[in-house]
Amino acid sequence: MTAGDLQKAVADDLQALFASDQFKTPVGDMAAPRVFSQFLPKLDSDDEDDPFPYIIVRLDSGTIETQTDPHKIALVLIIGVFDDDLQNQGHKSVLEIIERIQLHYEETPALAEFYRTDPFSWALQDEQSWPYFYGAVNLNFNAPAPRAKWSDLV
After folding, report:
1. What is the pTM of this model?
2. How far is 7 from 9, CA to CA, in rounded Å?
3. Residue 152 domain-assigned (yes or no)
4. CB-based burial of residue 109 (10 Å sphere; 0-12 exposed, 13-18 middle, 19+ buried)?
5. Angle 34-31-138 (CA atoms, 0-180°, nearest 5)?
6. Per residue of the chain (154 residues), what is the pLDDT tens digit?
């Protein structure tokens, strides 16, 4: 299993987890968070709507310390929500998403051949950005590292 396989598995998992959740969009509708891999898609024009709410599954880093150690893969989940309520409390929706992710991966730490490891860490944005609110989650997974035989390489 590769880091790309993990990214796809987490993206599919989060899409299913949040399929029935509804958050406000910039056009005033309610929608489930869309899940993207690595980056948001580029907008074709100024008329295209912002993709809020969303979760980006970003591969951050990986480590294979020795040939017999698991492949350690770090992911960052970037969460974006839109909340134009004048009470300026959109961070609560971001925190709700973070807490659902935490609970989900505590209850089911195995995903395909990947296994989530500690620590689970999260952060909310520092700067004011009303009506857009952001947060992030760091997740770490172990996976069997892909191995190639020397005879296959020469």
Report:
1. 0.89
2. 6
3. no
4. middle
5. 40
6. 789 999 999 999 999 999 999 999 999 999 999 999 999 988 877 767 789 999 999 999 999 888 778 889 999 999 999 999 999 999 999 999 999 999 999 999 999 889 999 999 999 999 999 999 999 999 999 987 656 554 554 4
Rounded Cα distance, 83 and 4, in Å: 32
What size, in residues, is the chain?
A: 154
Domain assignment present for residue 153? The answer is: no
The total of structural domains in the chain comes to 1
Alpha helices in 20-147 (DSSP H): 91-107
Is 154 part of a structural domain of the chain? no
Tokens of 50: 């912002």
15 is a domain residue: yes
Give 93's Cβ-side CA count (13 Å radius).
Answer: 27
| Cα angle for residues 141, 144, 147 (degrees, 5° grid) | 135
